Amino acid sequence: MCKYQISDSDCTCCCRFDPKQFHLDRANRRYILTQGPLAFTVGHFWLMIWEQNTKAILMLNKVIEKNEIKCHWYWPQDIGEAHKMTFNDVKLAVVLEKEEDCCYYSTRLFKLYDLESGESRDIMQFHYTTWPDFGVPTSPNAFLQFLKRVRESGVLDPTDGPPVIHCSAGIGRSGTFCLVDCCLVIAEKEGIQNLNIQETLLEMRHHRMGLIQTPDQLRFCYQAVIEGTKRLDPNYDEDELEESIYVMVGEEEAPPPPPPRAESLTRAPARPLPAIPTSESLGNLNLTQQDSSSDEDPPTPPSRTYSSSASSADDEDDEPFFSVAESHVYIDIDDFCHGSETTELRRRRTRELADRVSAMKRKAREAERWHALKRSFYKPLTITFGFILAGIIIYTYVKH
């Protein structure tokens, strides 16, 4: 029986604080999944932990993500009695006694006091700090190491109260954690051949709808379960795993800086640059193999892009697609690369394309002129019709 009750008058808190406890018999697991507490629900959050005899909180989100506050900072920020948080509405107080930071998660030890009876309990918090909202970790290795640390603490054992697991909404990252944990327990007890991840997820959704929000999160569950079952092998190399975890997390959080710009400018090229051609040498180009000074292929001409949208219909002057200098350059390059036949074909295609575009512009201008002419007739006709209608009405009124 609950010591404290949330009354019906606290509708504001009730509509934003929706914890859900469920258990999975095959895995012998119990969890309480909830949203991240807000400023006006923090007291009831700690009250739930006290009533359910919870030993641990699993926090899978940061307080601030993408410049948005995902949940309220519900624990003291400094160690000691002087920084304790007191919740007078539920007669509870929280003191931070110990904090330990790892590269991708943190652990904290709280002392939760009942101000009326003076009783106190130790509450652990496991805070995963590198899991993006609506996303997944880059690798299941770090997540599985975090899960191992949580399991070794004994807070998931059914002998104690159910752990409280929360992220922002309490269904995405929280559901991913529960699904991976339950599937690994089932695989260890019954064998991987008797594990069906889809059926396990559907059974969990009977207790809390919406678990696993994105396809990436479900895909990550499969990857984590596959990787986790490998660890059941007694020959699994744990030392190599530890090294790969720390290397992976380090690269994710601190990417290497780019090389300094000054170094790239002063660095000598790998091979000497080719000589700049003169106009005289361009006139004597020869494509024979013996006259070639380099084994490299000649550079390809720059790609010619045509604008998908022509100029507006009001523009009277049609600009050619290529200037005289540009077309001359293309012809010269084509001449010595492909021969006169290819050059003539490209010239003809260019002219045909220019003619089609000019015709499209001309038709657009003619259509615009015709619409403008029709619009010019609408106003006088409307005025004339209005006068006739008014005259008929006046004549009918006077006659009668």
UniProtKB/TrEMBL annotation:
Residues 278-290 have a biased composition (Polar residues). The chain crosses the membrane at residues 31-50, 377-398. It comes from the Eukaryota. Residues 27-228 form the Tyrosine-protein phosphatase domain. Residues 141-219 form the Tyrosine specific protein phosphatases domain. Its main location: membrane. Belongs to the protein-tyrosine phosphatase family. Non-receptor class 1 subfamily. This is protein-tyrosine-phosphatase. It comes from Helicoverpa armigera (Cotton bollworm).
